[in-house]
Design goal:
68 residues, alpha/beta, three-stranded parallel beta sheet, 24% helix, globular
Length: 68
């Protein structure tokens, strides 16, 4: 059973999403957690970077951080 889920809403975040994921993965939290990135219609390489980092990727149908 997972302790927590971390959701990262993304829209054209190719400059920051890799660093964000690395930071989360490098935390000293001893419990189990999952990271889910939600692409909110990015037109840059955001989704590609998320996939390369091995994080679960979902897509939001509606735009905006709340929808993600």
């Amino acid at each position: 059973m997972l302790s927590i889920s971390i959701i990262i809403p993304c829209l054209n975040e190719k400059k920051n999403v890799g660093k964000c994921i690395d930071s989360i993965k490098n935390q000293k939290y001893s419990g189990e957690f999952e990271v889910i990135a939600v692409d909110n219609g990015s037109v840059d390489d955001t989704a590609k970077i998320i996939k390369e980092k091995g994080v679960m990727l979902a897509y939001a149908e509606k735009s905006g951080p709340a929808a993600a």
